[in-house]
Amino acid sequence: MKQPAVFLDRDGTIIKEVDYLDSLEKVELLPGVPEALSALRAGGFKLFVVTNQSGVARGYFTETFVQKTHEFISHILGKQGCEIDGFYFCPHHPTEGKESYRQKCNCRKPEPGMVLRAASEHDLDLRRSWIIGDKKSDIMTAKSVGIKAVLVLTGYGRETEAELVKAGIKVPVCEDIQAAAKVILKESQLIA
């Protein structure tokens, strides 16, 4: 039977937003992340990080550094009993950066590429899946795939909330990822 998933934005959702993370020393889990992820996993969800990393296109860091960052985040979470099933990132930007990375692609959120790739590679049930993020691109990715979304007010969430209200886009809004996990578990009628 296919499992549902929760797709997690990275910067501003599970780790502190620092604008173009370029050093492992800057990686800092946001409060409540291990507890939220453990609750979601106990509720039957697989967990995937889907993150735009246009700093690669802009030459701020390499794809190898992004992969090392994800290994580091996995290590930190693993020490707290949490596991991410997969990390997906988009290194592109449609108008800026090095030629091979300067392109309009289907993986840069709000495009659905990363979510669809994870769903295909891991046989996921998208009808029962969610996205948690702090930007409009996260919410619009959910809409493009036809899954539910939760906006967290960490990272750029407060600015995004005002933007969504102005655009008439309604989604659950939560203070942080722990509150978002509770909404997902309640709405999915799963008990953590």
TrEMBL record:
This is D,D-heptose 1,7-bisphosphate phosphatase. It comes from Thermovirga lienii (strain ATCC BAA-1197 / DSM 17291 / Cas60314). The lineage of its organism: Bacteria, Thermotogati, Synergistota, Synergistia, Synergistales. Substrate binds at D9, R10, D11, E17, V18, D19, Y20, T51, N52, Q53, S54, R108, K109, K135. InterPro entries: HAD-like_sf (IPR036412), HAD-SF_hydro_IIA (IPR006357), HAD-SF_hydro_IIIA (IPR006549), HAD_sf (IPR023214), Heptose_bisP_phosphatase (IPR004446), Histidinol-phos (IPR006543). The record marks R108 as: Contributes to substrate recognition. The record marks T51, K109 as: Stabilizes the phosphoryl group. Zn(2+) binds at C90, H92, C105, C107. The active site is at D9 (nucleophile), D11 (nucleophile). Its main location: cytoplasm. Its cofactor is Zn(2+); Mg(2+). It is an enzyme of class 3 (hydrolase).
